Amino acid sequence: MENNGKGIFYGVIGVATLIVAIIGATFAYFTATANNTSTIQGNAATVSLGLSVTKVSNGNKGLVPQLEETLSAAMKGKDNTANSGNDMCIDGNDNTVCQVYKITVNNTGTGDAILKGTLDLNKGSITNLKWALVDGDTIDSAPALDGSAKEDNVIVESVTVGGSGTEDYYVIIWIDETGASQGDTGSFTGTVTFNNAGGGEGVTSTFVS
Q: HEC states along 30-42?
């Protein structure tokens, strides 16, 4: 009988301990859940992108070959002032020697967007078609290339566009003069894409020569 009394006593203690453990665990669970919920309250930042590609040079004729080293002068056109745009990329013989495009990416959201921009040219039958960035984000009276013709398709490797922010880029496209007879004719298309620099979806715009 004495042993049975001890057994009952230990049994009661065990049950009580289990109840306390369950209550403690349940309390801890709801506490953790409540704390976790409190850390994600509020409005999340959003990113919404827009992209436009606009031809800013004149001349509707097919491109004629142009030397890269004289491209900055050719960009200014026969009126010698690129700002006007009236004769941009048109030489003294009224030939179209290049095309200039303005690329605008805008973030209409509230959060920062870190983007990578690319331009892919579908050259068609224009074997010696090339492109380059124009220095700066405006076409001024003394335009210059930002480096030489691009060997890759990168406009910008990484740029941060803040909420309601805008970034502009200018690119020039031409047929490179080889110094020999050239059969570069036809039209081309270009595809501009701005994606999240770390991967993911973005925006794309296509233009036709």
A: HHHHHHHHHCCCC
Distance, CA of 145 to CA of 143 (rounded, Å): 7
For residue 202, the tally of other CB atoms under 10 A from its CB is: 19
pLDDT digits (tens, 9 = 90+) for 24-41: 333 322 223 223 222 333
pTM of the model: 0.76
**Secondary structure (DSSP) of the chain:** -HHHHHHHHHHHHHHHHHHHHHHHHHHHHHHHHHHHHHTT-SPPP---EEEEEEE-S---SPB--B-GGGHHHHHHTTTT-TTT-SSTTB-TTS-B--EEEEEEEEE-SSS-EEEEEEEEEE-TT-TTEEEEEBSSSS--SS--BSSSS-SS-EEEEEEEE-TT-EEEEEEEEEEBP-SS-----S--EEEEEEEETTSS-EEEEEEE-
User: How far apart, in Å, are the Cα atoms of 7 and each of 50, 153, 167?
Assistant: 76, 81, 80
Distance CA 206, CA 196 (A): 18
Sequence letter at residue 145: L
